[in-house]
Amino acid sequence: MNLTYCPARIDSPSPIRSGDRYLLLLGLALLGYALFARGFAYWGVPPVFVGEIVLVFGIVQLFRASTLPKLAGLPVVWLLCGLVALAVVRMVPYVGVYGIAAPRDSMQILYGLFALIVAALLVERPERIGDLVRQYSVFIKVMLACIGIIYLTFKVAEQSIPYLPWADGVARVFEAKGGDIMVHMAGITVFLMVGLMRRRPLLIAVLVLNAGIIVVSNRGGMVAFIAALAVGFVLRPPEARIGKLAYAFAFFLVIGLIVGPVVQIQGGTRDISVEQLWTNIQSVFGQSESDSLEGTKEWRLDWWDQIYNYTVRGEYFWTGKGFGINLAKDDGFLVAPSLRSPHNGHMTILARMGVPGALLWILLQLAWLATLIRAWWRAREAKASPWMAVFAVLVAYWLAMHLNAAFDVYFEGPMGGIWFWTVFGVGIGAAYVHRHYPHVLSDDNDQSPTPEPLGYAADAPAIEPSRRVAWGWPAPPRPASP
Length: 482
Description:
Oligomer: single chain
Order of helices and strands: EHHEEHHHHHHHHHHHHHHHHE
Number of strands: 4
Radius of gyration: 23 Å
């Protein structure tokens, strides 16, 4: 199966260009976060960094697009707006006490504006869905070409990498977190699995090599990767064939088991070895003999238990501790100078926003998942394989991000927060576009110039895209006529 992007002829010049340029800018920022992590996040002039700059430009695009009323019919949008509003209400009183730390801590939720921005731009010009697929294909090539070298360099020479002059002791010139990288490895693997990109042997080999090296040094990333692949396998289109990927991963596993015991790359607190992989598995499902793994696991569980007690069972039930306060210091778990949050994005929301905020967060995630699964089911019923593939990637990415955030500080920073809310926004926009304009992702059997919307929302207004996205999907052979 092959699903390839090929833009058709341009019928007329499009008056909409600033939104396309913004999505390209956002894509470059996401690439920087994926490759260089905190090193890229601190580009800028303190306290304004690249994430805040891109967000301001995005808010301008949000008001220019004027398409939020079209999204107002989706419950997930109302829940998102409610969560953002609650975060602002809980943050403002603490600005006078904690200064810039209050809005900085609230960005885990306020980055949700990226979701509204991206969704609005997709609704403004539905054929941008195809553009995003093409851009992500480019992201895959750059990511796979660079990330292995960046990760191994950081792993081996971390202490030799200088800090940024304006972030001394906080952010090095470049960094690499195994869990964050494995989220992207999961998304890339599912993207190839469902057939959204040609699976060339070299591409698969580099993917398997990078994923195999990085997964052994991070248990959160390992869990996220495996779970995302399982979801991608279940939600893949019926035409998708995963033979090459499965064979490549199986081959790497066999080679790893043979060569792994004699190959070990030391760096940080976790080595890159088969033994480390087995230790990670033991730590996830029980007890391991690793002091570093069990030590971090123990204080995290103790901290999460304390947060549960002073919110669900305690005095911070309704309000949480608010934004700006250093949770690590206030809760008595300051195990590192830069630590502020309890290595679990969901527990961070509970601690800072109380039970109401945590419940709204859970309802929002469930609403988004229900929206995407419903859209996927509609695509399945209509035999719209391109849409099935897109929704499968989005759900798999979403799950990988949530699982990684359950083990590490991920949603709280721009490296994970902006990525998460961007995927969230693409999901909202894709669900809307699929319901009203499903023909923007069509297979090569659809030759009509203006195809009907597959029976969904028949009263939806027609669009005249300036550039129609055509998809090539091999049709099954027809039986010979008698």
